[in-house]
Amino acid sequence: MYSFAYHCPASLADAKALLGRIEEARLLAGGQTLIPTLKQRLASPDAVIDLKGIGGLAAIERRGDALAIGALAKHAAVAASPVVRQAIPALAGLADGIGDPQVRNRGTLGGSIVNNDPAADYPAAVLGLGATVHTSERAIPADGFFTGLFETDLEPGEIVTSVSFPIPHRAAYVKFPNPASRYAMVGVFVAETSSGIRVAVTGAGPCVFRLAAAEQALARSFAPASLDGLRVDSQGLSSDIHAGAAYRAHLVAVMARRAVLQALG
Amino acid sequence: MTQDGIGAPLRRKEDRRFLTGRGRYVHDIVRPGQLYAVFLRSPHAHAEILGIDTRPALAGTGVVAVYTAADTAGKINGVPCAWGIAGKDGKPMKEPPHPPLALGKVRHVGDPVAMVVAESLAAARNAAELVQVSYKVLPAVTGVADAVKPGAPQLYDDVPGNLCCDWAVGDKAKTDAAFAKAHHVARLDLVNNRLVPNAMESRAALAEYEPATGDYTLYTSTQLPHVARVLLGVLMLGIPERKFRVVAPDVGGGFGSKQVVYAEEALVTWAAGQLERPVKWVAERSEAFLSDAQGRDHVTHAELALDKDGKFLGLRVATLANIGGYVSTFGPNIPTNLYGPLLAGAYTTPAIYCEVKVVFSNTVPTDAYRGAGRPEATYVLERIVDVAARDLGLDRVDIRRRNFIAKDAYPYQTPVMLQYDTGDHAATLARALDLSGWSGFAARRAGAASRGKLRGIGIVTYIEACGLAPSRIAQQLGARGGLFESANIRVNPSGDVSVFTGAHSHGQGHETVFAQLVGELLGVPSANVEVVHGDTARSPFGLGTYGSRSAAVGGAALFKAAGKIIDKGKKIAAALLEASEQDIEFKNGAFMVAGTDRAKSFVEIAGAAYTPPPSYPLETLEPGLEETAFYDPVNFTYPGGCHVAEVEIDPETGVTTLVAYTAVDDVGTVLNPMIVEGQVHGGVVQGVGQALCEDCVYDPESGQLLSGSFMDYCMPRADDLPVIVSATESTVSAHNPIGVKGCGETGTIASPATVMNAVVDALAAYGISHVDMPASPQRIWRAIQAAAPRAAAE
């Protein structure tokens, strides 16, 4: 780890001011990516701005037909929340399957989606449920939030404050873990929502994406059999020592079917 | 027998400190004024070093020294090899120099290039980034089959074809003749995947030097402190034994990777002398991936000749073994002497010929890894037996039974050097079939099929050689030292006992088992026996722990020393009891005059030895009660057994789940069944790791390690495993006085082949006859994809 300045502002405004003032500053939420990156000397920011002193960013509450979850809500809190388990059990289950207990008790929703790791679980839920990401500046629809490998639509100085998840009729998330890291090698979130069927895929490519062919097939009938014969194009999918693009493409179809089955379960 | 003696399932004395975080590892040791060392390692697999500029690093805050090969050349000799082999032509292997810091050239990613020593770890790390190394990158070769191809990049100017040694064992003519008359020849090509050892405690070394006396002390995470003292001190640094103390405190796992001596250990010792301050180095995990000696890495073609009844007539094996960029401490011995002679297995195959090309490549050197050569041999043999059974339509159990060495045929001379002592393969097989529910498998397979899963069952019957080793035989095979073990038993004046062993425990539980053994032999509670190991200043010269040798060799040395204690005790008792020495019997912890009730307890004799009463004949009998023994075994020991595995494969995803595992082992006398079971569990899991998930992968173009962290190197986890059923079905070894054979590696030797036989059985319906390890989801899915069209067409 290289040395850096540490700030712990007490308000969003203070945090924004620091971000505006310091050239190379990184926000610290749960630190599950940032801290290892610092320890491995892969990042050398001038300052780390810890968000933990800002109140009200970890709330979980139902607001009408949506769940509002604060950016600093820990995975373990989301997993255990009666509100989440009742409204969107698939989301609680997803949170319960992230990393290990240590990660779940430190890592946050906001940290996960801002980092937009291609193998992270939360982006699949945000995109699969058609959620809205609220920031210090604006509201960003999920379809426009995740823009590429570790890239989002956020502007410099913009801080995610919460995510609003519309409550679906039913939903499920099924992932195929990387055998070594147990990150999602392929994860598929399916949801039947009032605005239609959404299928989001994480792990398989450089960035979470929607699977239009599966959405159309499921729109006709929300049943696993609708996805029989679904061929996922391997073009653009990731390839590594654990899974080539063709295998990933195959797993997307399998996980999608299993997710539908689970949603119906 | 004492209640906590031989055979008692005693809980480990060590566990309280290990489980409560009170172990004392090298990293826990802090010496006043200690400095911190960081090694700058090569980012390239193969490159010339054009120049190194250390000046910017030396200017860094807190930096004390930066060393390169220019500083150590002529001061530190090369890293030595302790076991040199000879080729088919009788000529010694190629043994190019292995400088402690790369000299002129780097030969694998992770090859140490410079050592930075600073006042703090952070300062050392900062400075290491400032060392400027100018490289000319050369083409690299990492795969063993590529390394022997004409035109492959050459690691050494004077090692043509990267060939370290062209080795063979067995009678080629006789084997060829056996094949000429064969009814059938089974053939198999396989890869034995390279593994990273991943001991829980990474390697670490802390050296200090006392200028007033010239004494060095090295605390290091090693399996063999005395051997390390000779190799590091005498051979590399020119420090005589009397001036060099090597301490291996608690060591958190070795698996062979810490029976290697490493450049870093010599370098920190040397630097401590140069700087007259303690110097400490602790490997980071990513550094361990790039510098701990790795295991396996074979490419093999095997052929088994059979007659029409399925009797094995001959076995022919040709293996390419990858030993990496340098000759490691025991590196060339592993894929040769510890491999070829194991190919007889549990069978009467009359003719065997095995040739091994030992090959350099731009990878981390390979050396012993739990099982060391024997898992590789067992894998070849037990896989090809399954292939042969399928070729001939024979039952897999039946073909093994037909070829077993019968119990009454022991001792048995194999055609490849070894003479087995005892074994009863029919008994271990029968027990394993029973415990695994072999006969009920069809119903379980049908049940799995109804859930869309492919279920397979696999069996292995094996024999291995451990208890290294008879020094004479080892030396004939190239060992550059003896392989005996030492023991010192010091009976203290109060009658409690201190035991000093040359063996070293890094997870095996010696402090418990050796106390049980000595307690039993001397008739004292094991709680009153303290076992001391891992310090050259305290224990007599011993060879350390590897190759499942501690009980068979170290235990036998303790048996000898205990015998000397009892002999002397009898002399003391005879004097005290005014009887003839011949009339004294030692029984139940007491020295008695035979046929009388006159006796002296062990405690009384110990007291008399140190406080001689008037009747003690000091003119003819020395006071004190302490004896040392060295035991050199007459032969190896030969554990064997039968393992059965069941797997379920999800054909949609290729995921293999191990659903049942049964291990029945003949480990000889069982000293502590709880520890045997623990060793078998650990060994099995380590082999399951190789079979199902572990894979050390280098990029063939760049030579970069692609599986360089736990993000990509897949270790088996508790939730990957079923309950492992373990049982012993022992015959007593004839090769040592306590009848033990060894249990540290049996699991790792048998389980890769057992699991893979089950995997291939599960895939039998697709016509798949072999899958290489690890049976990763992608590999299984691809095998099914490749086979499915074929299977559909049939």
How does the helix and strand content of chain B classify structurally? alpha+beta
* End-to-end gap of chain A: 47 Å
Q: Could you describe the largest sheet of chain A, including whether it forms a barrel?
A: 5 strands, antiparallel
Shape of chain B: globular
CATH architecture of the largest domain in chain A: 2-Layer Sandwich
What's the CATH topology name of the largest domain in chain A?
Uridine Diphospho-n-acetylenolpyruvylglucosamine Reductase, domain 3
* Total DSSP E strands of chain B: 28
**Amount of beta strand of chain B:** 15-25%
Low-confidence stretches of chain B: none
Descriptive notes:
The complex is a heterodimer of chains A (265) and B (794). Chain A has 265 residues and is of the alpha+beta class. Chain A has 2 domains: 5-53, 2-Layer Sandwich (Uridine Diphospho-n-acetylenolpyruvylglucosamine Reductase, domain 2); 60-264, Uridine Diphospho-n-acetylenolpyruvylglucosamine Reductase, domain 3. Chain A is 33% helix and 25% strand. Chain A is built from 11 helices and 14 strands. Chain A has a 5-stranded antiparallel sheet. In chain A, strand 8 (146-148) and strand 9 form a beta hairpin. The longest helix of chain A has 20 residues, at 245-264. The model of chain A has no long low-confidence stretch (mean pLDDT 97). Chain B has 794 residues and is α+β, with helices and mostly antiparallel strands. Chain B folds into 3 domains: 31-138 and 200-253 and 258-291, Aldehyde oxidase/xanthine dehydrogenase, a/b hammerhead (Aldehyde Oxidoreductase, domain 3, Alpha-Beta Complex); 298-468 and 635-793, Aldehyde oxidase/xanthine dehydrogenase, molybdopterin binding domain (Aldehyde Oxidoreductase, domain 4); 484-631, Aldehyde Oxidoreductase, domain 4. Helix content of chain B is 28%, strand content 23%. Chain B is built from 20 helices and 28 strands. In chain B, the strands form 7 sheets. A 7-stranded mixed sheet of chain B has the order 3-5-1-12-9-10-11, sandwiched between helices. Chain B has a 5-stranded mixed sheet with strand order 7-15-14-13-8, sandwiched between helices. A 4-stranded mixed sheet of chain B has the order 18-26-27-28, sandwiched between helices. In chain B, helix 15 packs parallel to helix 16 and helix 18 crosses helix 19 (746-762). Chain B is globular. The chains are: A alpha+beta (265), B alpha+beta (794). The A-B interface holds A 1, 41, 176, 178-181, 183, 240-244, 247, 250-251, 254 and B 122, 125, 129, 652-654, 693, 695, 697, 706-707, 710-715, 776-778, 781-782.
